[in-house]
């Protein structure tokens, strides 16, 4: 069970602080009961000696101050959800790990984490992945790696791929294949150095066989 030490009412607390602590305590109880009820209704295994619960969670801008950051109330709710699992993969964790460290502190000494490095560049968006795990149920074997598929084993997305090409794109379509004709909301603008480029990103559906 996480350590919710900051909801303890202190003599010096203002009326607003007391009201917030009481609200957070009530919400944590409701959240815990709702999660337990959900797992029971879904037929989730309760035998934690034989089964582990695994989850993935995209925590938007976790560790960023872009939206004002997260106070202890938010971290407590996140901790309550995570505590119902044994292994959780967090996505969209930012370079600053301060919020993660606070979260692990709330979860308690039974929890550890493994964090990847931050992916540089616009494609990575300054994000990393973090794997939180309960050391009473999950053991890290001290070796981490990446899974690389052979060319024939890669999954091709039927809905297309998103590409960023700095040098432009030239596509030649066979006579019996779909054309790329259509209406696209982008205009060509001329820069001061004479270079011509589109004024916005352009998305074109490409045939998969190209």
Radius of gyration: 24 Å
Indicate the overall shape: extended
Distance N terminus to C terminus? Answer: 53 Å
| Chain oligomer state | single chain
Structural class: alpha+beta
Helix count, DSSP H or I runs of 4 or more residues: 4
Beta percentage is 15-25%
Low-confidence stretches: none
The main sheet orders its strands as 1-2-4-3
SSE pattern: HEHEHEHEEE
Query: Helix amount, in percent?
Result: 10-25%
Number of strands: 6
Query: Which whole number gives the mean pLDDT?
Result: 82
Biggest sheet statistics: 4 strands, mixed
Report on this structure:
This protein is α+β, with helices and mostly antiparallel strands and 210 residues long. It is 25% helix and 17% strand. It contains four helices and six strands, in the order H-E-H-E-H-E-H-E-E-E. It has helices at residues 15-41, 72-82, 98-107, 121-124; strands spanning 54-62, 87-94, 111-115, 127-134, 188-190, 196-198. The strands form two sheets. It has a four-stranded mixed β-sheet, with helices on one face. It has a two-stranded antiparallel sheet with strand order 5-6. Helix 2 (72-82) links the parallel strand 1 and strand 2. The longest helix has 27 residues, at 15-41. The mean pLDDT is 82.
């Amino acid at each position: 069970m996480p350590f919710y030490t900051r909801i303890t009412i202190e003599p010096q607390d203002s009326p607003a602080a007391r009201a917030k602590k009481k609200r957070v305590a009530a919400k944590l109880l409701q959240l815990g009961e709702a999660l337990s009820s959900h797992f029971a209704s879904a037929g989730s295994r309760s035998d934690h000696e034989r089964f582990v619960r695994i989850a993935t969670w995209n925590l938007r801008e976790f560790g960023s101050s872009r939206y004002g950051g997260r106070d202890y109330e938010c971290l407590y709710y996140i901790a309550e959800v995570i505590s119902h699992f044994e292994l959780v993969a967090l996505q969209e964790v930012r370079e600053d790990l301060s919020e993660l460290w606070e979260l692990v502190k709330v979860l308690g000494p039974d929890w550890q984490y493994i964090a990847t490095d931050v992916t540089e560049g616009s494609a990575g968006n300054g994000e990393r992945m973090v794997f939180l795990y309960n050391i009473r149920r999950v053991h890290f074997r001290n070796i981490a790696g990446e899974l690389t598929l052979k060319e024939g084993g890669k999954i091709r997305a039927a809905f297309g791929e998103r590409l960023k090409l700095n040098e432009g794109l030239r596509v030649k379509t066979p006579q019996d294949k779909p054309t790329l004709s259509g209406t696209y909301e982008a205009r060509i603008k001329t820069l001061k150095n004479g270079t011509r480029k589109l004024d916005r990103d352009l998305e074109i559906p490409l045939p998969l066989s190209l």
